[in-house]
Amino acid sequence: MFDLIVRNAQVADGLGNPLRRADVGVKDGRVAVLGQVTGTASEEFDARGLVLAPGVIDVHTHYDAQLTWDPTASPSPALGVTTVVLGNCGFGIAPATPDVRETIARNLSVVEAMSLDSLRAGIDWDFETFEQYLDLLRRKGVYPNVAVYASHSAIRSCVMKDDGSRREASAQELEQMVEIFRGCMQAGAFGLGSSTFNNHYGWNGVPVPSRLASDDEFRAFARVIAEFGRGSMMATCGDKTGIDFLEELAVISGRPVVYAPLLHYSNQPRRAFDITERCAAARARGHAVYAQASCQPLSMDFKLTAAYPMLTIDGWPKSEDKAAVAPVFTDPGFRARVREDLKSPNGSRIFNGHWDRVEVTIAARAEHARFEGRSVADLAVELGKDPVDAFLDLGLAEDLDTTFTAKLLNVEEDEVAKLLRNDGNMVSLSDAGAHHTFFCDAGFGMYFLGHWVRERELFTLPEAIRKLTSDLADIYGIPDRGTLTEGAWADMILFDPATIGISKTERLRDLPAGGERLVRRAPGLLATWVNGVTVFNGDDYTRVTPPGQVLTRFTGAPPRVGMQAR
Question: Residue 300 — pLDDT band, cuts 50, 70, 90?
Fold first, then answer.
């Protein structure tokens, strides 16, 4: 008697081997039989020859707050994800003493573009320590499996309060932080998440606390990881953090150290390849340094009242008040200055005048619906206007309520393809759970299977599934996940390879306090199982006791993926 039998599937084992026709029998959350399954089960599912694969492992999410009010981690399981990693960039919410909770929430609202009202209304702060946070998740239950990095910025805030964003730690403060982190590791932390990224600012424009950490502070945390012989470190890296230093941390900790984000910049074409080559050189020396890469264009949805991609244009107004910005956008002098600034590409500017990469996503008025899905460059040609004028005139005609989408990075697909082919570059960077009103990249795995496998034919289907599953489990030391083999946990997805993909974004207002977010769907995804339990049925989440596990046991074996012979 099995708990679940999936019959007549084309099974991808997650290891890159060819698909095989088989049944899968699941008992007590694990794959018990793979082959021809006889017997009965509490639940049977006919796969009808479609592909059954391990679920996607998403190693870069920001569900730390959301999981305290939403056990489903929406929209990830509906996009094929069965395991999520929290605490990336050091922007977790644990540990958190009562006196720093508001600081953590405020910083999170800015750096990860989350509604502060939603965070205040939604976060359940029934914890102080990291261990208590994990206990809270267990009590509430989670749909996907969850691994959690200890948050560097949260640890600094607990010890240094507001000074965490102002200066380096004293010797005594560092000793306190190291002891807190040691407690996090004892409780089952995935390691340390951090950021030194120049553009990571918190409330009122202060740097996020981890940006003020000295190199010796990072070394101290790496030594703690070495004590446990498991876990990893990840950092969203700024100018001061090079691959050489990450390699030093890998040597000290004896564990993987991960660089983020790896994206292709049009105006810095060698940047991502230099990082890739330096990581590969470190691995060739036996030091596990990896990079998190995106398989999608980095896109942002925005309105003219919160035009994040445009904010680095000289003189662009920062106000979100319609009455304040409308006269600015009408001013011919302002428009002339924008045109002049965009004439010279600037590596520090987010948007550099590629109007063919800015689309009208949602028109606010019916008479402009014909513009949806078209670029501002197209509109300019049709209307006989300069692109700056076409862009601003449409927004003003719709009372600044037009939703635009800007493709900012990772746009040159031939170059992105080269990055994705390198096994030392993980397919990642969804940022799921954050940037609610700017984009939704939680479906990166479905995009990878639809675009890079079926449309671009860059990978075979077994190769692509391996990169989304077992490669990630191997690098991070997540045991018995990422494969469909006998004895492995039954984290599975069923999909049609002929139609799998990702939809356009849609806007929901379902966050606490009525907050908005953008979501996408995965046409061609028929089911998602976590530990053998159906959590998504192809249409909606199922009402079940949340089957996900809070993962606290990780292997200390060195990763194989991307490591050259030593």
Answer: confident
